[in-house]
Specification:
The protein has two domains: 4-113, Cobalt-precorrin-4 Transmethylase, domain 1; 118-235, Methyltransferase, Cobalt-precorrin-4 Transmethylase, Domain 2. The protein has 244 residues and is an alpha/beta fold. The protein has a five-stranded parallel β-sheet, sandwiched between helices. A hairpin with a 7-residue loop joins strand 8 (190-195) and strand 9. The protein has seven helices and ten strands. Bound molecules: S-adenosyl-L-homocysteine. Residues 11-12, 36, 86-89, 92-94, 117-118, 122, 167-168, 194, 196-199, 223-226 line the site of S-adenosyl-L-homocysteine (SAH). S-adenosyl-L-homocysteine binds at residues 11-12, 36, 86-89, 92-94, 117-118, 122, 167-168, 194, 196-199, 223-226.
């Protein structure tokens, strides 16, 4: 029987992949790979596996969700096992939920294999715990991508006083910071931005909320990056340059 897996490849460092993920990858006939997945993880795939890149590689637009699901279905119906590899965890901002729904609608049960999400791994890579009894009783994972009606309710988030971990927040960083300040967050709140966490090219800045966007711009940080907002960021290891 052919099998379908939705696999989290973790944040980048190959050693942060789970044993279960590497085993499933080693069984798959076909592997569909997203942009943020470190290609080095393909060392765990069979040498004869068919590898399909569905992200925005080589300037090509990324494949649509419908096309990705259609490709998976075609292989599964032909009796081939399919591993769908996603960066971080497949169920955290990875559209894994949508793919699971689409496959279930076709009567296919997909096995979920968790990965370490960037929202935990990136802060940890520079010494930031996302919770800490002295600073935060919880953590909120939020996308910075939304605008208009899908904009997170920043006022409500500030009121939680929890650590905010922002995915996909770099493009709209100025607007996010402005919204948080308007919601009454302390301008001196410690913050961090970590780009390409757990990879050799990892870089980061530490700053206060009111200087964050400027520091990120002068350091030239871009995507993929995680932004951490909250007292826990004070535990971040200073980077060689750009800080404060
Ligand atoms: N499913 C993924 C998230 C996909 S959304 C996960 O669980 O990690 C894509 C966003 O994830 C990026 O815009 C960035 O905010 C974050 N991201 C993924 N990998 C990252 C990395 N190695 N370093 C920093 N941020 C990363």
């Amino acid at each position: 029987m052919s099998r379908a897996w939705l696999i989290g490849a973790g944040p980048g460092d190959v050693e942060l992949m789970t044993l279960k993920a590497t085993r499933a990858l080693g069984e798959a006939d076909v592997v569909l790979v997203d942009d943020l997945v470190n290609p080095d993880v393909l060392q765990f795939a069979r040498t004869d596996a068919e590898v399909v890149y569905v992200g925005k590689r080589g300037g090509q637009p990324s494949a649509s969700q419908a096309d990705i699901v259609a490709t998976m279905l075609a292989h599964l119906r032909a009796g081939r096992s399919v591993a769908r590899l996603k960066g971080g965890d497949p169920f955290v901002f990875g559209r894994g939920g949508e793919e699971q729904q689409a496959l279930r609608a076709e009567g296919i049960q997909v096995e979920i294999i968790n990965g370490i999400t960037a929202g935990i791994a990136a802060p940890a890579a520079i010494g930031i715990p996302v919770t800490h009894r002295d600073h935060a009783q919880g953590v909120v994972f939020v996308t910075g991508h939304g605008a208009g009606s899908s904009e997170p309710d920043w006022n409500a988030l500030v009121a939680t006083r929890m650590t905010l971990v922002v995915y996909m927040g770099m493009r709209r960083l100025n607007e996010i910071v402005t919204a948080l300040l308007q919601a009454g967050m302390d301008p001196q709140t410690p913050c961090a931005a970590i780009e390409s966490a757990t990879r050799p090219e990892q870089r980061h800045v530490l700053a206060q909320l009111d200087t964050l966007a400027g520091h990120v711009a002068s350091a030239g940080l871009g995507s993929p990056a995680i932004v951490v907002i909250g007292g826990v960021s004070a535990h971040g290891i200073p980077s060689a340059s750009h800080d404060r």
